[in-house]
């Protein structure tokens, strides 16, 4: 049992569970209902024995713990002692290191001092040795015979170059009269070696030996012919480089390739690369640009402008790619000057060519359109007489001059407009790219004025003037009204014009004084066109009312509202009403299709008010029997239904009131006062009510007059 407890001694100890297990294992320790009877004495005996075993186990474990504690204390003392010994050893080692460091510093100081002394002795000695060698080589030039191996052996060209370069410098200081011959010989040898080195560099470049090129370039760096070496390198780099049809792409690939190797050859790679780029721009690109532009400069302005824009754009794109390379401090200015040097002669008069081409192209587009219509443009006068006519027309709305039959032609073309706007858009794009920043707003404004001249004045304004002249007088019969078609197309065109103004012109002038000038010009054009559109719409509405008058005069009979047989009226409304409503619905639909936004409501309201006034005055011309009054009410109900198509509350209200007034034509005399005081008629002037009551055929009867008074 103790062994079993020892095996489980490290498990968590729970007293209740432990006693429970002990009871169940003890015979007679179960409940009274179990297989064995409950024996308390036996269970007590088992408890006592178990307690004794636990006490023995506790004593044993306690002795073991005390032993382990004593051992731990002993080992701790030994470890502390060992650590103290290690600390002492570390201190001794640290002291030794300090001493060694001081000794090393002392030795190093002595060595440096000794080195300085040796250098002080050796440097003059080396200079003396070098001077002696140079004097020896100089003597050979004096004697006229070069015997030294360094001058004879071609493999020692590097050493020979170093010597001759120094001799050349010395010779520069010698008096010419005494040493002219030797100076000449040294200069000749200097030149020969320089040529040999350049030839060697050229050969190495053709063989692709970068290391040899680097060695030769380093030697030539101190020679006057170093720049010639760079020129040779640049020339050979370009051999076979322009094989594609795209010279700009070839140039970019060439510079990319050279940029990767130039640092491995020259000590000043950024200078060499910049010189290569300058050579490419000033020779290759400039000759290519000249070839492309000169052939069409005088003969084809359109192609010239397209080529100029394309070449300038591609050159600028190439410049942007080259900005990635190291070209020195101010590479932006360097590349800008190169571009300017190529295009300066073309950009100086660019805007003159642009505006001249745009004017001729715009005039041709318009003329081609009018020729396709077999139309000869009328001359729209300007000056005092025309201004006087315009003021009279604005104030009186009278047609001045004979009416022109346009045969339904508006003389507005979206195709023409799109072509004009496309040409102007391209002009704006070229202007943005090719203009100097200081000239950009002014140049953009010049292009805008050309657009205004040809699109707004020569096309839209001319169409409005022609449309106004084509509006018939208000008393014309069966007049065809085409001005609303002009309004519709002019509205669409002006939206396109406004979009180009915002999308292409505004970015070019937004931060300049030209912005206010452009906005003012645009405002004047809008006001001028709106004035003519308003005049045309007003006269068109008058013509519509005139047409309705003709319909009513032709179709409305007096017997319609005062039939001979009151009991045999079979129609719901008169023929005049049917035709007028059909005509009005057609015109309302046309107005809705021709305009947009609030303009539709404004024009429909004006037409509705005039339509109401016409019907009101028309009804005042007749006398109404009882059945005729009912028919008049039916007509007005139909007019009111037609007025609903306007979708203008005010117009509908006018016809509702008119319908209520017509009820006065049929109401019983006893109910007249009640009807007049109704919601719709209560606020009307009594004279208006009286005028409608007077239209009744029975008005003169004493009974009716008495009731209304």
Automatic annotation (TrEMBL):
The keyword Mitochondrion does not apply. GO terms for biological process: epithelial cell apoptotic process; establishment of planar polarity; exocytosis; Golgi to plasma membrane transport; homeostasis of number of cells within a tissue; non-motile cilium assembly; protein localization to plasma membrane. One of its GO terms (molecular function) is small GTPase binding. InterPro entries: Sec10-like, Sec10_HB, Sec10_N. Pfam families: Sec10_HB (PF07393), Sec10_N (PF20667). Residues 159-708 form the Exocyst complex component Sec10-like alpha-helical bundle domain. Keywords: Coiled coil, Exocytosis, Transport. Residues 51-89 form a coiled coil. Transmembrane segments: none annotated. One of its GO terms (cellular component) is exocyst. The keyword Coiled coil applies. Belongs to the SEC10 family. This is Exocyst complex component 5. The lineage of its organism: Eukaryota, Metazoa, Chordata, Craniata, Vertebrata.
